[in-house]
Design brief:
The chain is mostly helical. It has one domain: Na+/H+ antiporter like fold. It is globular and about 55 Å long. The two termini are 23 Å apart.
Length: 319
């Protein structure tokens, strides 16, 4: 009985964190299925979200980041090291499992690239509110840059496309999310306060906007694609939802990361594979259906893995 009284409140917190975002994704899938959200409209709204609204949200919260001592924190480094470890290990796994060489980059990207900008940030906001958004802004910027650089290298190497360092750097620096976060961090560095009315409006906008984004994520998923899912797809799902979070938490613990920072690391890196991974694979002429399947499958399964992982971290007293 004592075990239940301990576990149930922790499980309740985990479900309170994960259930609303994934319910919103489900609403988007249902709306798309019944024709309430047309594909053309979803594409237009998604472009507006990525290019305008999300950078604005990230600017508002990045401007309120407390940078005192942040560079001494291992939680930024833990995401970098976790990503590099997973990429190297996933490539080795793909080779050992004798996957077609042209699938290696698609598999590895599916194994490491989290949907931090949409699902991850929503989970952090649900769990820790303003503090969660502020803590997630900096790693989101740093790790998004890393994700893009690694993805370009992976796909160019495994799909035989030559890409210059300059073009990679230009693409990363033009990323709207990175621009929004960078602008906000300048305000934080120089301690330029935003007017209270803007902070209040930003909080209200974020509360409405994040559910809207998740509905769009759901509307962009297609369950039909899963009918032809390959073994690479299921194994990439295993790597993304189980191996990646375990490696990330282990590295973070070695770097003495605890409490809310550890929870932020987990929520961002345990998030499902980002939709951007499919876009990049398609652009490079890779196996688009496989990339799309990884996105769909990890999104559907991640509510279980994230809820379980968050409960375990709380039960262990680490967060």
């Amino acid at each position: 009985m004592s075990v239940l009284t301990t576990v149930i409140p922790l499980l309740g917190f985990a479900l309170k964190t994960t259930a609303p975002p994934f319910l919103q994704v489900l609403i988007g899938m249902i709306a798309k299925r019944f024709g309430l959200l047309k594909e053309a409209l979803v594409n237009r709204l998604s472009r507006w979200t990525f290019n305008t609204a999300m950078p604005l949200v990230m600017f508002l919260w990045a401007s309120q980041v407390d940078l005192s001592g942040v560079w001494r924190s291992g939680y930024l480094l833990s995401g970098v090291l976790s990503t590099l470890v997973i990429v190297i290990a996933a490539l080795g796994w793909a080779r050992w499992r004798k996957f077609p060489p042209r699938h290696w980059g698609v598999f590895a990207q599916g194994a490491y690239r989290s949907n931090m900008g949409f699902i991850g940030i929503a989970l952090c906001a649900n769990a820790y509110g303003v503090e969660g958004l502020a803590l997630a802004a900096l790693p989101l910027a740093l790790w998004t840059m890393l994700y893009n650089v690694v993805a370009v290298w992976l796909l160019s190497q495994t799909l035989g496309n030559d890409v210059s360092v300059a073009s990679v750097a230009t693409g990363v620096l033009r990323n709207p999310l990175i621009l929004g976060i960078s602008g906000g961090l300048l305000f934080a560095v120089f301690e330029i306060p935003l007017p209270s009315v803007i902070r209040s409006a930003g909080a209200s906008f974020t509360a409405v906007f994040l559910p809207f984004v998740l509905v769009l994520v759901g509307a962009s998923l297609s369950l039909k694609a899963l009918q032809g899912a390959s073994r690479e797809t299921f194994e990439a799902c295993f790597w993304k939802l189980l191996v990646m979070p375990l490696v990330a938490v282990a590295i973070a613990l070695l770097l003495q990361v605890r409490g809310t920072e550890l929870a932020i690391v987990f929520l961002l890196l345990a998030s499902p594979t980002a939709t951007a991974s499919f876009v990049m694979v398609a652009a490079y002429g890779g196996n688009g259906p496989m990339a799309a399947n990884i996105v769909v499958l990890t999104t559907l399964c991640s509510i279980v893995t994230i809820t379980f992982g968050l409960t375990v971290l709380q039960l262990s007293g680490l967060i």
